[in-house]
Amino acid sequence: MRTNRIALLTSGGDAPGMNAAIRAIVLSAYHYNIDVIGFYSGYNGLINDKSKALSLHDVDDIIHRGGTILKSARCPELLEEIGLNQAVLTLMKNKVDALIVVGGDGSFSGLIDIEKNWHGKVIGIPGTIDNDIDGTDLTIGFSTAINTAIEAIDKIRDTANAFERIFVVELMGRHSGHITFNVGIACAAEKVLSFENVNVEKELDVLKEVAQEIKLAQKERHASYLIVIAENLWTGGVTEFSKQLNDESGIDCTPCILGYIQRGGSPVAKDRILATKMGVAAVQAIIANKSNVMIGEQNNGMVLVPLVNAIKHKKQVSPSLVEAQQNILALVQQSQC
Ligand code: F6P
Fold it and tell me: How many CA atoms lie less than 13 Å away from 293 in the CB half-sphere?
């Protein structure tokens, strides 16, 4: 059956490059003579029937903008039967043939629920700074987020060097360490603390180890010491970590939360291009009658991944990255102290 109308929404934490995906979808749909309606504020737009027909004009100056012109939100209402029914009703009322959602794993769960209750096709595009979606080498927004964090931490390093000071910087990523590990390595952090290399059951041991390493560094040279730590890793967060370090060993360590700065800003080239490729592939997948799949990128090619597989497991941080940090870089940095 021919697809006449695609609905599109962005959902969950916004990610730089979502606008580039919207643009690519609208342009591709135009090429194939398909209408696009954008629903506002994630699934809330479907539940409340708040939308706008998207024209070429709407997307002609957005590829370089962070955030999303369609707004985004988390939507617990979709988990309730009444919210789900309302969303499906809106799709039917608007004569939608296919729904594309740009978002993370929570957004894909919602999409799977919609598919079970609706006749149309559903396609997911991975858009999250966390890079934690299985089946794609990268998610839209991750490259920009790590570049933003690196730029910020390089600046922190300057002041840390000037004052010979110790900083602990908390990075986003929800429950995975893609941002923390990649940024830690790119900033030559002396210590990376993340889910992949820290046993959270043994916080006291970790504190002792960090304190010992810092003291050694301070004894041997006068320089800064930078720790990056994944959000949600430490009970009480980064402020509690530095307080405990101080209580345990008298070490003065300045906590810093980079926070939402990591979600904003103009997308880097990599995100604009990835989002564009995924947007085009999403429309082509719909034309090829595919449904219930996520568009992923693997080895530089576009692939279709069943949505259930994409959310079954969190994508692991590259083991070679973890191993390089743990078994080579951190050890050499220590031995130089
Ligand atoms: O998923 C993106 C993300 O920024 C995570 O890194 C972070 O844990 C979370 O969203 C924050 O969510 P919220 O915007 O709801 O505070």
Answer: 19
Per-residue exposure over 282-304, b if at least 16 CB sit within 10 Å of its own CB, e if not: bbebbeeebbbbbbbbeeeebeb
Mutate to test the pocket of ligand 1, among 71, 75, 129, 183 (most ligand atoms within 8 A of CB): 129
Angle 10-271-18 (CA atoms, 0-180°, nearest 5)?
A: 15
Per-residue pLDDT tens digits for 69-93? 999 999 999 999 999 999 999 999 9
- What spacing in Å lies between the alpha carbon of 332 and ligand 1's midpoint? 34
Distances (CA, A) of 96 to 35, 133, 267: 9, 27, 30
pLDDT, residue 328, reads 85
Q: Are strands 253-257 and 293-298 parallel, antiparallel or unpaired?
A: unpaired
Amino acid (1-letter code) at residue 1? M
Q: Which atom of ligand 1 is nearest to the CA of 74?
A: 15
Cα(336) to centroid(ligand 1), Å: 37
pLDDT of the residue at 326: 85
Q: Which residues contact residue 16 at a Cβ distance below 8 angstroms, ignoring those fewer than 6 apart?
A: 66, 67, 129, 140, 141, 144, 145, 263, 264, 265, 266, 267, 268, 271
**Residue closest to 92 by CA, chosen among 128, 148, 126, 46:** 46
Query: 3-class SS at 330?
Result: helix
Residue 332's pLDDT is 78
Spans of the chain, pLDDT less than 70: 221-222, 335-337
Spacing of C-alpha 142 from chain mean position: 5
- The pLDDT mean for the chain works out to 96
The response to whether residue 214 sits with its C-beta less than 6 Å from ligand 1 reads no
Distance CA(89)–CA(37), nearest Å, equals 15
Q: H or E segment at 163?
A: helix 142-163
Q: Which protein residue's CA is at the shortest distance from atom 8 of ligand 1?
A: 174
